[in-house]
Amino acid sequence: MRLLIAMMKHETNTFSPVPTPLSRFGTGPGPLYGEDAIAAYRGTGSGLGAYLDLAAREDADIVLPIAAGAPPSRPVDDNAFEHIADVICDAVAKKGFDGIMLDLHGAMVTESREDGEGELLRRIRAIDPKTPVAVSYDMHANLYDAMIANATVVAGYRTYPHIDTYDTAKRAGEILLKAMRGEARPTIAWGNVPMLPHVMKQGSDDHPNKELQARCAAMTEDGALCASLFTGFPHADIANAGLSAVVVTDGDRALAEQLRDELLDRAWVGREDFVYQLEPLEQSLARAAALDPPQPGEGPIVLLDHYDNCASGGTMDTTAVLAAILQAGLENVAAFAIYDPAAVQQAIAAGIGAEVALAIGGRLAMPQIPGDSRPLCVTGTVKTIASGRFRNKGPMGRGVLTDMGPSVVIDTGRVEIALISRHVEPSDLNCLLALGIDPMQKRYVMLKSRIHWRAGLGAMAKAVVECAGIGVCTSDYSQLTFKNVRRPIYPLDLPNR
Ligand SMILES: [Zn+2]
User: Which of 13, 54, 68, 314 is deepest in the core (most CB within 10 A)?
Assistant: First the structure.
């Protein structure tokens, strides 16, 4: 058996100013190829890790031409997409594969196309119309017909935070292996409903997504090979942004359509529960200040700077929430993080223990949202200088190498501010530990995150206070100008009916 395995992942925030060149894809920088990619992902809790494990179990020969994954940002540079697609398609063109296993995101927009994944799959099918293709998609995929029509089997994450990336690829891969052996004839039905579930309401521990994902899992008892509900990624001004569902059955189209419709109907009925209620920042911080400090053994109060999540395309350099925390005089705070490679270099030049006055953040203009974030002047001691590289503790992406770039911690006396040089969302405990910050010793931890922080730090948090700041993953969707999404769409246009 011979398998082609590849990864191409990018969640595109079309409102983001953060560039997406080829160098953003990968750790260090740029994509990994061939043996380097295999070495980086074998044994990890990632989608590629699952495909590699399946291949090993089946004693298959593998070709892994490229592993290209970038943190979310603006539409992908055309030449970056063309390069990644070319490397994969060149491998397909060499022929001789029994199956193709792809780890894709599903919300990739390029400079020229709304649907990067659909274009990749269309090209693969044009070269090789026959070899079965399995695709694993992120729960935030915005589905287009080409993403489904050119695949043999499709599976989506069922957890957000995404702690089932491995399980999802394994599910897709197992069904593909069955199809390759002639033990199943996958038939796919997909569809969408005109709704943009709010990201802050998409957590799979929360109603209504919890019940929707549980129903997907239970559908195997009703005859589905695999059922997936995609909450979609709303910070994308493209026609098909929003919620969709995919059901794969063994040759039973009617059943696939029936189960798909059930998922879409359930989601539509629950649409009001996907709407997020905003709270002014001053009110949130006043609430945080009034909370009792953590007792010994209790974890910190998390202050969530959710408008500026780099894993949703945020610049990670807005300073509104951090400035308000300093202004409010909160004590014993750690803040993760402000992306500012230049300020990091200034702190490194000053050295550990030096007193520094730095202007941090606020460097990248955000023309697509109202308001702007200016640099924040802080004075403090350089407490930590670090490489910024660590392996994820998990449960998200266990064992995967993460690179924050050169990183420092500035201690103002009240607030320890992490400054980093590559975009990394605080979804793993080790991002703090790698900088010498133990969140269990902190009264407050400010995190630039929305849901993924729960993977690494959720269980230890004493409380969470969501703080409205500034950023291109704004939770106030009235700040976003949608020109291309299909209309009408809930809740932008439709009344609560
Ligand atoms: Zn996602």
Answer: 314
What is the side-by-side strand order in the sheet with 463-467?
355-360, 376-386, 407-411, 415-420, 333-339, 444-447, 301-305, 463-467
Average pLDDT on 327-352 reads 98
Least Cα distance to 385 among 357, 359, 422, 410 occurs for 410
- Tell me, in angstroms, the distance from the centre of ligand 1 to residue 282's CA: 29
Q: Is the pLDDT of residue 2 over 60?
A: yes
105 CA distance to ligand 1 middle (Å): 8
The rounded Å distance from CA 426 to ligand 1 centre is: 14
The rounded Å distance from CA 330 to ligand 1 centre is 32
Mean pLDDT of 247-269: 98
User: What distance in angstroms lies between residue 86's CA and the mean position of ligand 1's atoms?
Assistant: 25
Average pLDDT over residues 9-30: 93
Ligand 1 centroid to 467 CA: how many Å?
21
Task: Compute, in angstroms, the gap from residue 138 CA to the centroid of ligand 1.
Answer: 5
Report d(CA 134, CA 154) in Å as an integer: 6
C-alpha of residue 159 to centroid of ligand 1, in Å: 9
**333-339 and 389-391 beta bridge pairing:** unpaired
Q: Please give the distance, rounded to the nearest whole angstrom, from the Cα atom of residue 161 to the centre of ligand 1.
A: 8
Distance 219 CA to ligand 1 centre (A): 22
CA torsion angle 262 264 265 269 (round to 10): 140
Tell me what pLDDT residue 337 has: 98
According to the model, what pLDDT value does residue 373 have?
A: 87
